[in-house]
Amino acid sequence: MRSLLLALLLAGLCAAQDPAPILNDASTKAALEAVRRNEAHFIDEQIRLCEIPAPPFKEDLRGKELERLFRAAGLHDVRIDKAGNVIGARPGVAARPNVVLAAHLDTVFPEETNVKVARERAILKGPGIGDDCRGLAVLLGVIRALDEAKVRTPATITFVADTGEEGLGDLRGMKSLFGDSMKGQIDKFISIDGSGLGITSRGVGSLRYRVEFTAPGGHSYGAFGNANPIQAMGRAIAKIDAIEVPAKPKTTFNVGRVGGGTSVNAIPFESWMEVDMRSEEKDALQTLEAKFKAAIADAVADENKRWNGKGAVAAKIEMVGDRPVGSTAESSPIVQTAIAVTRAFASTVALSDSSTDSNVPMSLGIPAITIGGGGRGSASHSPAESWDSTDSVIGTERALALVVALAR
Questions:
Q1: Which of 37, 201, 274, 398 could hold 257 in an S-S bridge, CB 3.0 to 4.6 Å?
Q2: Are residues 309 and 330 in the same domain?
Q3: Edge-to-edge, what's the strand order for the sheet holding 386-388?
């Protein structure tokens, strides 16, 4: 039986980390041929999906279209969970292990963004075209190719188009997937995110805070002497800027957004800022968090002392994001298999760290990696984002070979 042969071939791959057996298997070769045959169609789909708006927390329209496509592709038990994740399964010979292949629905761009994609030969230009419309296109390309080649895998493959990967989405789709809708049902996890052929095996954790400074406010002349929330925030930003962080593990901070005030001639009654802190290690992130909170307290105290507590400032610190630190060991079977498969398609293999959907399973000890979807992207997270489709088919081929290899 083909499935038994495939299982034996994959067992050999796990021992030797040699992708040749699976790449030479007749059903896998047929699937790879289908990938190449269908690549132009799925680049068109990449454009079409990208022109369906999916701003933060409003991925519903794009999610509904992925649900339709999952059903049309013949996936089983297609559904949308409470977080908006679109889920569909391709049953294997057995229900377990269950390998999840995912790509995220959302973009970083607000609702009013023009999401029309411009095409100039191999170059596609549009917000989100690479991150992560490319991931969604690869997801669909893998599903179609497996179906056309009638590939039978020993394990089940579950496909997920998830929500909340970007910005203040705080990985809500993944947190729901692993904590609720598929809790205890996922054995291996692959996320397709962006372009290129890289492998992310280390998840950079992040903490995000919104800090609101408040005070009575007043007229800039008549109430002069009242403590000023924006000036308190300025003191806080200066103190945060002075924090020393280690180079290794890489640990960073950023004041990304600020606001407040009503008029140039009014002492503001409120101001706010949003702060992002990241690190490769949990302890370093917690140390930075403590210094950040101390900076806020000291800044408020300094502002109130400066004006003798008149019209005093207060600060409210609210956590708005918590992405867990995680990693998958380079020696683990999932990483070694990804390296071996990637070498069959690319001249170099690079492991990297980043903050992706894989952070959640990594933090839970579930084998997980994130891979690029092929092609070359630039200006990600900006309105000028572009993606070069030259040789992009290699990304879909690599994703298919990897998911079949892991579905042993």
A1: 274
A2: no
A3: 118-120, 123-125, 386-388, 376-378
Residues 56 and 192 in one domain: yes
Q: How confident is the model at residue 20 (pLDDT cuts 50, 70, 90)?
A: confident
Q: What is the mean pLDDT of residues 339-364?
A: 95
What phi and psi, each to the nearest 5 degrees, are found at residue 186?
-110, 125
Q: How many domains does the chain have?
A: 2
Tell me the residue range of the domain where 160 lies: 2-203+325-406
| Token couple for 171 | 């990985």
Banded pLDDT at 18 (limits 50, 70, 90): low
User: 195 and 52 in one domain?
Assistant: yes
Nearest 5°: phi and psi at 72? -65, -30
Round to whole Å and give the CA distance between 180 and 310. 50
**Which CATH number belongs to the domain containing residue 141 in this structure?**
3.40.630.10
Give Cα separations from 2 to 18, 35, 151, 154 (angstroms): 20, 20, 9, 10
- Among 283, 302, 323, identify where a domain stops: 323
Token pair of 223 as six digits: 């109430």
What whole-number percentage of the chain has pLDDT above 90?
92
pLDDT above 70: residue 136: yes
Last residue of a domain, one of 303, 323, 343: 323
Taking the C-alpha atoms of residue 336 and residue 327, their distance in angstroms, rounded to an integer, is 14
Residues in the chain, total:
408
Mean pLDDT computed over 203-216: 98
Rounded Cα distance between 19 and 405, Å, is 8
Pick from 367, 369, 374, 341: which is nearest to 199 by CA? 369
Q: What is the mean pLDDT of residues 6-28?
A: 61
Q: Note the pTM of the prediction, 2 decimals.
A: 0.90
Helix ranges, 52-199 (H): 60-72, 133-148, 172-176
The region that residue 382 occupies, defined by phi over 0 for left and psi between -120 and 50 for alpha, beta otherwise, is beta
Q: Specify whether 11 is located in the same domain as 102.
A: yes
135 lies in the same domain as 210 = no
Where helices occur in 248-281 by DSSP H, the ranges are none
**pLDDT (tens digit per residue) in 81-116:** 999 999 999 999 998 999 999 999 999 999 999 999
Residues 188 and 240 occupy one common structural domain: no
